[in-house]
Specification:
It is built from six helices and no strands. By secondary structure, it is mainly α. It is elongated, with a radius of gyration of 19 Å. The N and C termini lie far apart (56 Å).
Length: 141
């Protein structure tokens, strides 16, 4: 393989690896196995966030600023849920068997993904939703 093509392929694999690391928490954690349930979870939330982003663009084009901000907020909230599957699984598992409250909290905290961008995206989503509500209360569409 020519060096230029090989370099492009290496860059593509590096980009895919970095994206996997972003959604799984860190580069060292990117090798963990993703279950079919988690893959489905991510696909559903990714497609839903893409649909909401499309609705936001439609609202922007139509001049509906409040609706666009709300749709962008929901988009960010859906994107922030992408790496949260292990946390949801831990919460469900903790409620199935009777355990002490402290043990359930420890199990959930261990499963919480260490993904700072997801927390920032979620916070940004709530801010945009709040701005959307404020604009609607002020009479903007």
């Amino acid at each position: 393989m020519p060096p230029v093509i090989r370099a492009r392929n290496d860059a593509a694999y590096t980009l895919v690896g970095a994206a996997t690391a972003l959604t799984s928490g860190s580069m060292s954690n990117s090798r963990r196995q993703i279950t079919p349930g988690e893959r489905t979870w991510r696909a559903v939330f990714f497609l839903a966030s893409a649909a909401m982003a499309a609705f936001a663009l439609l609202d922007l084009e139509a001049g509906r600023w409040a609706g666009a901000l709300g749709d962008l907020g929901v988009t960010l909230l859906l994107l922030s849920l992408l790496p949260q599957f292990p946390l949801v699984r831990a919460i469900v598992a903790a409620t199935e068997k009777p355990r002490s409250r402290e043990e359930m909290v420890r199990q959930v905290e261990r499963a919480r993904p260490r993904v700072p961008w997801a927390e920032h995206a979620g916070a940004g989503g709530w801010v945009l939703l709040g701005a959307s509500i404020l604009l609607r209360l002020l009479g903007f569409e």
